[in-house]
Amino acid sequence: MYHAPTNTPALARSPTITDLGQVQYIFSDKTGTLTRNEMKLRRMIVHGIVYAVPEEDPEANRPDVQNGMQTPGGKEVLGDEGLPNINELATKACHEKDEYAACILEALMLCNTVVVENKNGVIKYQAESPDEGALVDGALHAGYKLFARTEHVLVGETPALNGARRSWHILATNEFDNDRKRMSIFLRESFDDEHAPQRDGRPMLASQPSIKSTQSDKEGGASLRGKVLLLCKGADNTMLAAAAPTNLDGLDDMRDRLDEFARQGLRTLVFGVRIFEEDEFESWHSEYYAPALASLSDRDGMLKKAAAVAEHMLTIVGATAIEDKLQIGVPETIATLAKAGIKLWVLTGDKRETAIEIGKSCRLLRPGMPLAILSSKASLSELKAALLKLYHLSGASPEKDVKDKKERAAVEQKLQELRQENNGSLNNFGDCAVWQKSDSEQVRALVIDGEAMTLLFGDRATEMILFSILSKCGSIIACRVTPKQKAQLVKLVQEHVKPTPVTLAIGDGANDVNMIMSAQVGVGISGHEGLQAVNASDFAIAQFRYLLRLLLIHGRW
């Protein structure tokens, strides 16, 4: 359980945990827990065209690559054959005056909170998250280099004028949060004698929201002088919902492309821009942002509101896809835990398609395993119909699963209400999916998303129906869930599954702390996202595969 590459031994942080050998449920984060959290930008979409970002793979000689371990996409290498290179996108931005190309490449470089370290002429980036580091590194392939950052100024090099430097004043930053699932930054580019000629050498944004340049803007800078630029990035569902009505053309095609990337196990982000007049920005800043910064009560809530006000009517300029490979030994570990009768739930903020593909790669979802889906994309009536159908197919019943008479009566009444709402028809499930009757003898799996959880949670009888289904599944994936929902799932399993099981939660980041602290046994992974998870845990390990030894050898009882 010692990880030599990082010189990290396992650590028992609590002397009171004695039930390792009795764990029945494991709740696991995905990114950094099952995967390496070593992100690489691999794809970009602009105008519906997919561009490849070359992989200079420093891991080519690692043992798992040599031995044929699969990546989350199920392939040795994500093939770039037949796709235009990101350099072609840079050419369009700099020489063909493609506004969308210029915007997304600048957003890769600027829309972040990356700290730039310049030591002896060598620039290194310290990113808050591996995703941000992957985007800034990916921009380097196109010649867009973040050169320096201070509290109020960003300096970057672009290929517009052979790498001449440009600078932007940072006016406000709306940090990422798990409710909005976006982050954004307000910038004003310098147009002094030093920088104006550089700005004139590349395409300029014109009027919002079409951001199409005109012949009269051939010098460029005129259209953004006296204006403020908002760059925004985030999850596809929240970004596309914030798109301007005049910018909806082509978004359905983008959704299809993003779903395709997700099925390859890639993490996707969508980028948008919005241009503010100076007085419009000042009005937002004085009415929402400045009071939020100065507030001593509900500061976070006020900052979220300020960000939400600004982040709408966006022009969607493109999207990215990031690759994150599995850790060594994850599929074997999960397969062995399943043989031991331990149920594994993977809780992630990723898209459903990405989560399912990762589940297949790590053998959480095994070939031939029946898979059900409870999706918020379905209507509420379709979601309830799927819930009722799965309850019957799971073999659950109030008599067997609910001991308390009052609770049993409440569950029976809720089931009756669901039958009446569906008028006896249980065959219209929309985006949801159910098992088949012939699957009853097999180990089954279920995928549920965070919004569907929100719709179903809150009513105790409905929760009991749902957890009667979940308790009969061998594998569960919860996607698009917030940190609060991760902890909520752990608590609800302890509340609704009888007899109360011993639960273990494992994660590597600050967003996993609530989940780790909600379980009887908490395990933190020493990874790339700080020590918050480790500090909140009972045991600290460096790799997910060490969980096998922790439970099956040290947990023997």
Radius of gyration: 25 Å
Q: What is the strand tally? A: 20
Question: Biggest sheet, in brief?
Answer: 9 strands, mixed
Low confidence ranges:
57-77, 195-222
Straight-line distance between termini: 20 Å
Q: Specify the structural class.
A: alpha/beta
Number of helices: 20
Strand percentage, roughly?
15-25%
What is the topological layout?
Layout: E1 11-12, E2 23-28, E3 40-46, E4 49-52, H1 63-66, H2 86-95, H3 99-110, E5 115-119, E6 122-126, H4 130-141, E7 145-149, E8 153-157, E9 165-174, E10 182-189, H5 196-200, E11 227-234, H6 236-241, H7 251-263, E12 267-277, H8 278-294, H9 299-310, E13 315-323, H10 330-339, E14 343-347, H11 352-361, E15 371-374, H12 380-393, H13 398-401, H14 405-421, E16 445-449, H15 450-456, H16 460-470, E17 475-479, H17 483-496, E18 502-507, H18 513-518, E19 521-525, H19 532-535, E20 539-541, H20 546-552
Parallel strand pairs: 2-14, 2-18, 14-17, 15-16, 16-17, 18-19, 19-20
Antiparallel strand pairs: 1-20, 3-4, 3-13, 5-6, 7-8, 8-9, 9-10, 10-11, 11-12, 12-13
Helix pairs in contact: 2-3, 3-4, 7-11, 8-9, 12-14, 12-16, 14-16
